[in-house]
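Troubleshooting: if your tokenizer reports a length mismatch, compare against these two reference records.
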Amino acid sequence: MVAVLLTGSCRGDHPTTNPPSVEPSVGSTPSAADQPCPPSLPSSARCGTVTVFENRDTRAGRTIDLAYVVLPATGAAQPDPVFVLAGGPGQAATQLLVLAKSSLAGVNQTRDLVFVDQRGTGASNGLRCDSDTLEGILQGPWDDANHEALVKCGQSLPADLAWYATPAAMDDLDDVRVALGYEQVNVWGGSYGTRAGLAYLRQHGEHVRSAVLWGVAPPGQPYLRTFGPQGQAALEALMADCATSEPCRALLPDGRATIDRIMARLEQAPARVAVTDPRDGSQTTIELTAGMFAGGLRLALYDASWSSPLPAMLAAADQGQFEPLMGLVTQVAVAISHQIHFGMFMAVTCAEDVPLLTEADVVAADRTFVGGEFLRSLQSSCAQWPTASLPADYLEPVQSDVPVLLMAGELDPVTPPSTSELAARTLSRSRVVPFPATGHGTSNASACEEQLVRSFIADPDPARLDVGCTKTLQRPGFLIPDGG
């Protein structure tokens, strides 16, 4: 969901579609076409594409070659693989191959891992809308300065954007399942990938053995609604934890008032801050506005390890020294911008989230440090963005008796445990597991997460799952200058 840090001009990422004037050959039964794998992958990896029609209703015109990577089980394989669904929206699943060495390492011992680039991402007709400037990346798509470029991007992308919402993509995914010869699969999804996973469960649940979801964003519940209030809650938790540490409390004796003071100064006059552009290592100066500062602060709350130096960074910012904070924010924001296909982000968000926002949601965001202006700007951009028509039941809660494990960090600034609990109400064999002291990212909880995922997929009985490791989780210690 951190995709909203991006903005700008556009280009088609990977020309994987056939021109509309060419009559493609797509059989009634999906089939896979082998492709060479990159040399960086294990020799056992299998790569290829499955061709689908962009318009799944007419089954005519432009096609999309869905790119996939299969990492075979490293030991005796079970017949049901794990399909990995990426976040964003807009991240390509093949950018998550590192999971085979982290969260899914134990699972990969007995099951294939399958990574399919969702339509509009990666090599599956990736739809990019990138900023040429560092300030553009940091401003985010809600900034008025980027509205015209964003709309122009949508008009020039090589796609019918009305076909890039989640339901069509999950039918694509099932075509890949058929083409690869799997009868049943397990689903792993993170952030937006949880929404995709729940949609797949609704549309093709008969082929799902189990689902594991981290940071749940259910269909029909716009994650944008939580940005302000939940970001505020994560900040308040940070301040409360800081207040319990004498060295940290000495850094921020005014607590939350420090943020108000910084924001007020930036509202009066933006600061000029020298940062290193991670794209080429060059030194550049950005104009830091209050909105950009708020967006950067919210981003820093996504992972407990990122927020560990945050009190010291805020204390420095209070003295007019924004370089430490913006150094971290710039590194993270640029890394995200490389991964998120913002054209696909807009196609999903404008169809599935923005229409559900109410004026009360915007007002609630206005009451937080995040503010509601980004919601207003997204509403304005989406008004000029082609959107999909969703199935009649898409916004309804997903009902299923498939075993589902739903996990969420208690410090998550966007998908708190409450959204997992909401989704679990209609999942009869589910379990919600809150992770104390953990954000949207899991750097301080990776071992526990890997253990739970491995155990649940091996034995998908929610009642038997041992979640004891979550009781030992702690926020990483705050980094205090000079060892204070």
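Reference record two:
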Amino acid sequence: MSDIHIDDFYRDAAKILVALYGQFPKKITLYVEDICGPDTPDEFGLHSPRHQACFHTMMWLASADYLRYDQAVRQEALDQVVLSHRGFLVLSSAPRNAPTPENPIKEGSLMIHKIRQELRSGTSFSLAEVMQELMLMSRQLGEIPKFI
């Protein structure tokens, strides 16, 4: 049995990447509530731990070079956010085996398609496996030149 916060991290990260891929290369404002659902801050204006975890997932994806943004809007959203070069490459890649003339990329075999499928009908465990595979693929890309 996995820790629920790790399951939430994988689900949030998957939803964030899918949302950004769907708008690529346009920069958007990405709201935390669009990823993890509505939140009601407490009497002191503090968000729930679930909302904060989702916001920090966005920040982690940026620090791990999956996305770029101009600024955080409190803990409500990221403004002018877009997939990074690394994020786009890994989502539009076919996992595991490189395509060959004998084994071309098939429709639905890209990482973005696998993630969408897992979000629609997968389990927490199968989504975690796909997200771990994405992160391993990203690591194999090595250092990617950063664009200004």
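Descriptive notes for reference record two:
- The chain is about 50% helix and 10% strand.
- The chain has one domain: 4-140.
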